[in-house]
Amino acid sequence: MDGTLYRATFRPTAGVLICREQEVILIRRGGDPGRGLWDIPGGFLEPGETPPVAARREIREELGVELGSLDLLLTDINPLPACTVLDIIYTAPWASGVPRAGSDAAAWAWFHRDALPEDLAFDTTRRILAHWRTSTRSNSYRLLGGTRLPLAEATRVAVLAPPWRQLPAGWQIRSGNWRIHDQVLCGSVEGEHPAALWFETPVPGDHAMLFRAATVPPHRNDINCYWEGSGDGWDGTDPQCTIGGVGGWWDGLTGIERYPEGGLRASGRLLAIQPGRMYEICAGRWGDSDFVFIDGRLAVQLDDPAATRRPASRVALATWNSHVHFASVQVYSLPAAPSS
Question: Which helix (H) or strand (E) holds 60?
Answer without folding.
Answer: helix 51-63
